[in-house]
Amino acid sequence: MNNLGWLCLALWLGLLQTPCYGEVAALRATIEALSAVESRLAGYPGAEAGAALVERELVAAGVEAVRRDSFAVVVPIERGGRLRLEQSGEEVSLWGLWPNLARTVTLPPEGLRAPMIYGGRGEWRDFDGHAMDGRIVLLEFDSWNHWLHAASLGARAVVFIAPEQANRHQAAAKYAHVPLDIPRFWIEREAGLVLRQRLRGGELLVHLQGRMDWQQRPAWNIWGVIPGADPELADERVAIEAYYDGISVVPGRAPSAETACGIAALLELARHLAADPPARTTILVATSAHFQGRQGMAEFLARHARRLEEPLHIDLFIGLDLSSRTDQVGIWNNTARPELRRFFAPFGRRFSGYASTLDSAAVGSLVNGITPIKGLDWSAYMPGGIAANSQLALEGGLISLGLITVNDARLQIDLPLDQPAAVNYGNLARQVALINGVLQQALNDPQLLEEKAAFGPVLQDRMRDLRLKVRTFPRRSQTPDRPVADAVAVVRSQRATADKAVKGVRTAQVHLSDDEGELLITGLVQAQYRTNVYVLDPQDGAITYAADLSKRAEGFHGAPLPDGSIPSSVQWALTEKSVVVFPCLSRPFYGLINPRSLNFLSGITVLNRYDTAPRQYGYALGSSLDEAAGVIFGPQDADPQNRIKILVGRQLLLLNNGVPDSRPNGEGFALAEEQLVPTLLQAAWDMWRLDEDRLQTMRDHAIENQHLQRLHQRTAQVLEAAQEAAQRKEWSRYVAHLRVALGLENQVYPGA
Predict the structure, then answer these.
(1) Which of 189, 462, 550, 731 could disulfide-link to 526, CB 3.0 to 4.6 Å?
(2) Number of domains the chain contains
(3) Within this chain, do residues 472 and 534 fall inside the same structural domain, yes or no?
(4) What is the per-residue pLDDT across 41-74, written as a single tens digit (0 to 9) for each?
(5) Which residues, 6+ apart, have CB-to-CB distance to 171 below 8 Å?
C-alpha cells in the first residue's frame, strides 16, 4: 500500500473513533447546566435544580410516566463564612470544609478573633518563628493532613488557599473521622494569595466567622418507563440507573462536573431508546444522595424492589457510573465473590459480542470485568475500588450489572475545581455511543435473561434496617429512658475504618434523631457497623452529648470498639439498638504514634484521679497514622476533683503529675479548666516523672540499672531542649526533640 493509501486508512480509522459533534454538544450542554450551580450536593438548592432538569429532559425525550420519589437526607449545610482583617476592615468570603465526623466548622455567634499566620504547607519547619497557640493558620491546600500539625501546636482554626489543581486524596486529608474542634475553611485563590502576601510581613489580627449545620433536607429519585415494543418480551423489565448529585470536600462549593457524566449518558440513552423503543420494558432511574453512602439507591430499592411497596418487578438492573479520563467502559458483576462469577459469565460474553458488532473502536473500548483476560481481575481496572449503586442492587437481591468507566482514578472529583471545562467530552461521547449500542442490542436480545432462573438460589436480599434509640440517664436513675432529640448519628461499616470516601462516596452515613430520640436507617448491607452519636450545641457547634462508655452504660449498648464507637450488629430485617449518651465537654489530644516503631497507637484506658474507671466518660480515636489524634469526653458538671487520666497503648501517658503536691501516678486533668495540648510534651514529662519515682524507689532499695538510668537522664536533657526550642518558636527542633525523648523513655518505662 502506498503512502496515500496508509493516510486514507488512518483518516478513516480516526473518523471511527471521533464522536459526532451533536453528541458532544448535547453532553456538554447537560453537564454545564447541571454544574452551573454553587453546589449540587444532595439537599442543596443545586441538587433540586438538577432534579428538575433531569425530570424535564426525561419527559422531553418521550419517557413515559416520569415521577419523583422523595426521601430525606442529612447533609452539612453551609450557612456562610467570612474573614475580616481587623486593621483595614477588609472582608473576604470563606466556605467551610467537610465536618470532622460530626463536628462541623461552626464558630460561636461572636466568631473568633485571633492573630493569623501563614504556615506554608504545614511542615513543622514552616511554623518556625511563629507563636502557634490560639492562632488561625493560612495553609496551602496541597498540604495533605498537616493541618493536624498546626492543631497539635495549639492553632485554633485553619484556612486553606484554593489550589490551581488538586486531587481527591488531598481533599480526603482535610477532614477526619475524629470529632476534632478545628474549624477549617476554603478561601478562593485570588483572595488567598493577597492574604498570603500580607502575612509574609508578620501575623495579622483577623475576625473569623463561619457556620455549618447538619440538616435534614429533601432529595428525589426520578424514574420513568419506556414500554417494551415486543409483546413477548415487554413483560421483562430492565432498570438502567445513574446518579445526578455531586460531592465536594467544600459542601457549599460542589459543581461536580465530572460526576455528572453518568446522568448525562443516561439522558442520551433516554433519547436514543425513546426514538427506537427496545423489545423489553426499560425503566430509567436517576438517583440522588449517591455520595451520602448511596442512600438514594437504598431508598429506591426499599420502595420498588425489596419490600415491594410499589413493585417494579425488575428482572435486571444496570448501573451507569461514568467519568471522562478514558473512553473505556467495563462491564462488572458488582462483587468479588467467586461463587457468583460463573452465573454472571454469560453476561460478559454477550456484552462483548454486542460490542463486536459495532465499529472497531467500540470493540476495544468494552472491557469484560466479569471474566477478565488471564492475569487480571476487576481491581486491575479500578484501583482503589468503587462504591457503585449497582453493588447495592446486587445486595438487594437483584441480578445486577455495572457499566463503569475503567482505568480512571477519578482524581479530580470531590473538589470545587471539578468544573465543566476539565471534562473530556470526546471520551465521554465515545462511551455513550458504545453504551447506547450495546444496550440497544441487549434489550432486544431474546436470550439476554435465559439464565435468570439460575440466580434464584444464590441471590438473596442482604439489606437490613437499623433503628437507633438515643437515650440518657435521668438524675438518680439507673435506667436510660430519657430520649434525646436532634442527636447526630454517624454509622459506618467496621471494615471501612481507613477509607473516609471511595471515589468521593462517603463511607459514613449521617442521620438525626427525632423528637422521640429515634432514627431509622434503611438499606444497610448485612454486616457489623460502628456508631458514633453526638449532640451539637445549636449556637457554637460544640459537642454537648457523647456516647457514655462507662460500665453502667455498657449494660445497655455494649462494650465500645477500640476507637470509642458503639458496635451495631445489623443481621435481622430490623435491628434495634440503644445508645446511651451523657452531657459532656471535650478536649482533643494528638500524636498517637509509637515513637520507636512509628505505628499507630490504639487502645485507650481512661481512669479517674484514684486510678479507677470514671462514672461517665467517652472518647473517640483516629484509626490510622493519617489521623493520629483523639478526643476525650468528660461530664459537664464535674467538680474540680473529678479528674481524668488517659493511657493510650500504654505508651502515651497523660497523668498530669507535674502539678504541685501531685502523686507520681498523677492527679489527672480537670477538663473544664485544663487542656491536653501540647499533648506530646505533657505525655513525655508525665512518663519521665513516673519513671523517676520508680527508679528512685529502686535506688532506695540498692537496686540500680545503669542502662535505664542513662536513658532516663538523657530523656530529661532532651525534654529540656524541647522546651527551650518551644520558647524560641523553633517547632521543627521541638518536635524532633520530643520524638527522641519519647523513644528513649519508652525504653525506660517497662523496666522501671
Answers:
(1) 462
(2) 4
(3) yes
(4) 999 999 999 999 999 999 999 999 999 999 999 9
(5) 248, 249, 414, 415
